[in-house]
Write a structure and sequence with these properties.
The chain is mainly β. It contains one helix and 16 strands. Strand 14 and strand 15 form a beta hairpin.
Length: 213
């Protein structure tokens, strides 16, 4: 009943997208995680190392799942609040036992081999079952800060001619009563390049896997 109500609410409130509502929705969940092999940014000849206070903030927004020209809007969590955007730290790390690294951790320098990048759910929403062909969302770089070997803090700009809206063509199946999870992987440091006095965010990102459970 909850699924039915939520889907009907979604499609009665402005979702004139051509994707028909269904009484037996599935869930689409989209996660974002940095690639664990992309760990170094070279600044003035020095290679960065992780600290407990590093950040690389991006804003994720405007998620949509397409079937041809029709689409369903995606939101952060399956609640009636319909939150459409979130700020994510691409450098957020976690210890191997799953605990997140926090600014209050006793170690200032965080060993890369004892930690990994944390995975974040960026969208989770009810969608009518069926076959879809494209995932779309906005990704905007805000600021990067690393503390080791020296403090480096810079705002990020979008390269000229590069849209903040990203498209990922892929066959995506939504089944009634099941969750389809799309795991996205991004290369955080490879996504930064310097142009004159600016640092540009040109996201190197792809779909790593799609699974249904």
């Amino acid at each position: 009943m909850v699924i039915t109500v939520l889907v009907v609410v979604c499609f009665l409130h402005g979702c004139t997208t051509g994707v028909e509502p269904s009484p037996e929705a599935g869930i689409i969940r989209v996660t974002l995680k940095s690639d664990d092999a992309d760990t170094v940014l070279v600044i003035l000849g020095d290679s960065t190392r992780f600290s407990r206070v590093d950040w690389f903030y991006v804003v994720v927004s405007e998620g949509r799942l397409f079937k041809g020209a029709n689409y369903a809007d995606l939101y952060r969590t399956p609640s009636l609040e319909r939150i459409s955007s979130d700020t994510v730290n691409l450098l957020q790390r976690q210890w191997l036992d799953g605990r997140l690294v926090t600014p209050s951790d006793p170690l200032f320098e965080i060993p890369a081999y004892q930690t990994r990048y944390a995975k974040k759910t960026i969208f989770e929403w009810y969608v009518p079952p069926g076959s879809y062909d494209r995932l779309q969302f906005g990704l905007t770089g805000i600021e990067v800060f690393v503390a080791i070997p020296r403090r480096f803090r810079n705002p990020l700009e979008r390269p000229k001619g590069v849209s903040r809206i990203l498209n990922f063509p892929s066959p995506i199946t939504i089944e009634s009563g099941k969750t389809t999870q799309i795991d996205m992987e991004i290369y955080p440091f490879r996504s930064i390049r310097r142009f004159r006095d600016s640092y540009l965010f040109d996201p190197q990102i792809n779909i790593e896997r799609v699974k249904i459970f």
